[in-house]
Amino acid sequence: MGADIIDGKGFAARVRAEVAGHVARLKSDHDITPGLAVVLVGADPASEVYVRNKGIQTREAGMNSHEHRLPSDTPEADLLALIAQLNADPGVHGILVQLPLPAHMDAEAVINAIDPAKDVDGFHILNVGLLGTGQKAMVPCTPLGCLMMLRDRLGDLSGLNAVVVGRSNIVGKPMAQLLLRESCTVTVAHSRTRDLAAVCRGADILVAAVGRPRMIPGDWVKPGATVIDVGISRIADGDRTRLVGDVDFDSALPVAGAITPVPGGVGPMTIACLLANTLTACCRANGLEAPE
Ligand code: NDP
């Protein structure tokens, strides 16, 4: 006996197909095509890969992809001017500025310059506040993908003990807010948490978003727990490298009830949710009901 392995890749493909279906109907019924603008400043290799994949999947879903590549020494004022232009463009329904930005830029100021209605990453302070107060918000893509997998696996989450390891603004905190909205009893752990092992052992739902390879061993996992591993680290494996998560998959597998693999778990869901958020933004901008 071992945990069910949650197929994030397959789930993400289903989400993308659903989004593509809605996009096709928006076109045929309303002559509207959702548009996503992705802005990349500099040439960070990992960001290049993400941006390329986002563009491919956006087009595959039938949406327009607007890619803007700026040199790393672009003045912040020029980036803000581009964002203002995209905010005003009725053909652009979602705007994503790929992080990290070069050191001379103030990432918070840049993100907060995006029209909150087009903020498909859900990082704008207004969307953070809307989510925190339980109102209709643009929800950050990675935690949204995690929640979709949890709901699919567990149905009603209310009353479950959820432990989120990591408190970043892009994953840990919004994940905790979403689980609270689902009426979980939520604990947020971080680098100062005492006896993390004991905290994790109390989790019916364990979400790991740290970025430390295999730091959570199987004996920290409650038997039957649902484990969502957000972490992605590249480690040496002989003369090659490979990706691993924050959870030690091999020792957690016999203990957990279900677990996401790395790669193939949370990662693919993130872009699928970006497409879903762009569709939502487009529907709202046109006064149409957004699909659930
Ligand atoms: P951050 O570095 O911003 O945050 C890491 C968090 O982990 C911090 O809150 C930190 O605590 C906590 N932490 C660090 N060390 C420990 C420890 N020993 N014990 C407990 N907590 C600890 O990372 P992100 O949230 O941006 O990303 C987390 C991971 O998720 C990364 O591996 C990243 O690559 C991955 N990721 C994956 C995505 C996907 O699509 N699958 C998307 C986004 C991220 P403190 O606040 O106290 O410093």
Beta-strand portion reads: 15-25%
The CATH architecture of the largest domain is: 3-Layer(aba) Sandwich
Radius of gyration: 19 Å
Intertermini distance: 35 Å
Average pLDDT across residues? 97
Number of helices: 10
Name of the CATH first level of the largest domain: Alpha Beta
Order of helices and strands: EHEHEHEHHHEHEHEEEEHEH
What is the tally of beta strands? Answer: 11
The chain-level structural class is alpha/beta
CATH superfamily annotation of the largest domain: NAD(P)-binding Rossmann-like Domain
Low-confidence stretches: none
How many domains make up the coordinates?
2
Helix content: 40-55%
Organism: Paracoccus halophilus
InterPro entries: Aminoacid_DH-like_N_sf, NAD(P)-bd_dom_sf, THF_DH/CycHdrlase, THF_DH/CycHdrlase_cat_dom, THF_DH/CycHdrlase_CS, THF_DH/CycHdrlase_NAD-bd_dom
Catalytic activity: (6R)-5,10-methylene-5,6,7,8-tetrahydrofolate + NADP(+) = (6R)-5,10-methenyltetrahydrofolate + NADPH; (6R)-5,10-methenyltetrahydrofolate + H2O = (6R)-10-formyltetrahydrofolate + H(+)
Function: Catalyzes the oxidation of 5,10-methylenetetrahydrofolate to 5,10-methenyltetrahydrofolate and then the hydrolysis of 5,10-methenyltetrahydrofolate to 10-formyltetrahydrofolate.
Please characterize this protein's 3D structure:
The chain is an alpha/beta fold. The protein has two domains: 32-122, 3-Layer(aba) Sandwich (Rossmann fold), CATH 3.40.50; 141-268, Rossmann fold (3-Layer(aba) Sandwich), CATH 3.40.50.720. It is 41% helix and 17% strand. The protein is built from ten helices and eleven strands. Strands 1-11-8-7-5-6 form a six-stranded parallel sheet. The chain has a three-stranded parallel sheet with strand order 3-2-4, sandwiched between helices. Helix 2 links the parallel strand 2 and strand 3 (64-70). Helix 1 packs parallel to helix 10 (266-285), helix 2 (45-60) crosses helix 10 and helix 6 packs across helix 10 (266-285). It is globular and about 50 Å long. The model has no long low-confidence stretch (mean pLDDT 97).
